[in-house]
UniProtKB/TrEMBL annotation:
Lipid bilayer topology: Multi-pass membrane protein
Keywords: 2Fe-2S, Cell membrane, Disulfide bond, Electron transport, Iron, Iron-sulfur, Membrane, Metal-binding, Oxidoreductase, Respiratory chain, Transmembrane, Transmembrane helix, Transport
Localisation per UniProt entry: Cell membrane
SUPFAM superfamilies: ISP domain
Source species: Streptomyces zingiberis
Family of this protein: Belongs to the Rieske iron-sulfur protein family.
First and last residue of the signal peptide: none
Protein name listed in UniProt: Cytochrome bc1 complex Rieske iron-sulfur subunit
Primary location recorded for the protein, binned into one broad class: membrane
All residue ranges annotated as the Rieske domain in the record: 242-337
Superkingdom of origin: Bacteria
Physiological role: Iron-sulfur subunit of the cytochrome bc1 complex, an essential component of the respiratory electron transport chain required for ATP synthesis. The bc1 complex catalyzes the oxidation of menaquinol and the reduction of cytochrome c in the respiratory chain. The bc1 complex operates through a Q-cycle mechanism that couples electron transfer to generation of the proton gradient that drives ATP synthesis.
TM region positions: 60-80, 100-121
């Protein structure tokens, strides 16, 4: 609209304090702070051409479908790709194929949902600007009624109920994306089952000196000595060495048979040689200190003390129970061997300890 002459020559003027109508002009000669009103509404092509609206609808649905396919790709990558496989990706260089595939597919899935929602809002939902007066924070019944009416109107203008293709594909994409998180729960590790109850020790396993890697004979262990042992077949360079030795670490002490007070300890020993778990039953520290005269062993972490002449019971400190004993014997070749596993789970107590 052009003006010739006075600035007061306008198509419409609002009263002071009255909101301006959409697309109207306001006289600002007397009041430079008057509401200038809203610019004329420009209709989008989707508002006047149903074919353009259908194209936008198909584009949005395509984005949601791509999101669903990307989620399927995420799950497939997690299942199929090995964790140690490397691939060359320019410009990143050699990267983990699994990590790259997971990041790419999850990123595409989330991006397509966001892009579809933004495209829906910009092309198909109503974009008419509405001026409204400020109101007190406390909502009156009339305001609440208006809000609900606006909500219903917005839902109707969004086409959510009418455009079923968009609605259904959006539901599909949003329902499938959380599956990515569910699949990742597998990385918490496999269920422990009864792994905490068992070690590598078993009937016939030789007792191997942890320092020399040689099988032990009874004559290798003098009275009053402390020897650390591991099960036969567990090599120091094995990938699972730390995991297995944390359960199977063994200490061997030779006592005079008459000094052994516990009946089961005596039955499970050989000529005064007793074998106990080296893992403290408090928090799992290695028990390393031995007092020859008292037959006590001490954990250096929190000073839990165990009496090896009396079933390795706790006589001091925070440990909750005795060290588990390993029953031993001698095979036909004269080497010390285990006659089974430990009497109970080694290390600190856990919820299934029996």
């Amino acid at each position: 609209m052009s003006q010739t002459g006075s600035n007061k020559d306008v198509s419409h003027a609002s009263l002071p304090g009255e909101p301006a109508a959409h697309g109207s002009a306001v006289d600002t000669t007397d009041n430079p702070f008057a509401d200038p009103g809203l610019p004329p509404h420009q209709h989008r092509i989707q508002d006047i051409d149903e074919r353009a609206a259908k194209r936008s609808e198909r584009t949005i649905a395509l984005l949601f479908v791509v999101s669903m396919l990307a989620t399927v790709g995420f799950i497939a990558s997690y299942v199929v790709l090995p964790i140690d496989k490397l691939v060359y990706i320019w410009p990143f260089g050699h990267v983990s194929a699994l990590n790259f595939a997971l990041g790419l597919t999850l990123g595409v899935a989330l991006f397509c949902i966001g892009a579809g929602a933004v495209h829906w809002a910009r092309t198909l939902m109503s974009d008419v600007e509405v001026a409204d007066e400020r109101h007190p924070i406390e909502a009156t019944p009339e305001v609440r009624s208006k809000v609900m009416e606006d909500f219903r109107q917005g839902a109707a203008e969004s086409g959510f109920g009418r455009r079923k293709l968009i609605r259904n594909t959006m539901f599909g994409a949003m329902a499938m994306v959380p599956l990515s998180g569910v699949v990742l729960l597998r990385d918490l590790g496999p269920l422990p089952g009864d792994k905490l109850r068992h070690t590598l020790w078993g009937k016939g396993k030789l007792l191997v000196n942890q320092n020399t890697n040689q099988p032990l004979r009874p004559e290798d262990i003098p009275v009053g000595s402390l020897t650390f042992a591991k099960p036969e077949g567990l090599e120091d360079d094995a990938h699972d060495f730390q995991t297995e030795i944390a359960k199977a670490a063994l200490m061997i002490v030779r006592l005079q048979p008459e000094d052994i007070k516990d009946k089961q300890e005596l039955e499970w020993s050989h000529d005064g040689i007793v074998a106990y778990s080296r893992i403290c039953t408090h928090v799992g520290c290695p028990v390393t200190l031995y007092e020859q005269n008292t037959h006590h062993v001490l954990c250096p972490c929190h000073q839990s003390t165990f009496d090896l002449s009396d079933g390795a019971r706790v006589i001091f400190g925070p440990a909750g129970h005795a060290l588990p004993q390993l029953r031993i014997g001698v095979n036909q070749d004269g080497y010390l061997e285990a006659l089974g596993d430990f009497s109970e789970p080694v290390g600190p107590s856990f919820w299934e300890r029996g």
